[in-house]
Design goal:
317 residues; alpha/beta; Nucleotidyltransferase, domain 5; 2 domains
Amino acid sequence: MTRHAIGIDIGGTKIAAGLVELSTARVIAKEIIPTKPERGGDEVLRDTLDVARRLHAHGASIGAQICGIGVGICELVNPEGEIRSEYLIKWQGLSAQEALAKIAPTRFESDARAPAIAEARFGAGVPYRNFIYLTIGTGISYCLVLEGKPYAGAHGNAIIAASGILSSDCESCGATLDRSLEDYASGPALVARYNQRSSSQPGATALATGVQVAAAAASGDALAREVVTSAGAACGNTAGFLINALDPQALIVAGGLGLAGGLYWDNFVASTRRRIWAESSRALPIRTAQLGADAGVVGAALCAPTAVAPEAAPGRP
């Protein structure tokens, strides 16, 4: 019988969940609901449990063999699958794993690593033994994939690419600028930078998402072009640093902005290649993720406790 798992991808904006056929990555049934983390961890957990129960019931109705639940969450998760932060999803102390395990055996994973597993097994990472998976969207994070498996680090924290403060001093005025890359180049950062600068313009309309700012840039909005160009270049600076430090075979990019193409992508790629120090790495493949919006759900399902462990595909160089 074909094995299935429930994959749940919990982000700051939405919860995406699906019943996944593990041997093919086919998403048989899928639900997307808003996360609304401001309501508190109990409410988010209640919604997550409801979604998991519905998908489990659907699987049972079609005779699917469900081996477990995997959850990719936008928090720090250690190598043992324990949530170690609650920046957005307040689940520490709530026994969330035990509650989900009453439906099926459950394991947590970082939402930066789960989709990288999916791309390594079924997507753009298949040709490579080692690659960097970079997500550019509401947040900016990375995962180093080695031999088809994600490297978590000693404490599970090897996902942080853009949250640390990058301090710089102006040589002209002496001011110190304390800003992280996420404060400058993520989706919400593009919105904040654009809306702040456009608010003084007559008839200006506030934008709501980074993708909208990118679309305004594509339509010729000069301010949007400036914001998007500078953000793409800044993100490429960090991508180049990661490539210099980790020496991967490829860079695979995901997330709303990472997949949006256009001006952001063009400046990101050009900046990345300019920042790569070694000549032998400068032309490495920079590819977009293949599984798109389903990568998080598929990757989470592959992390279920009794799912087939992700392995490097045969024939990789």
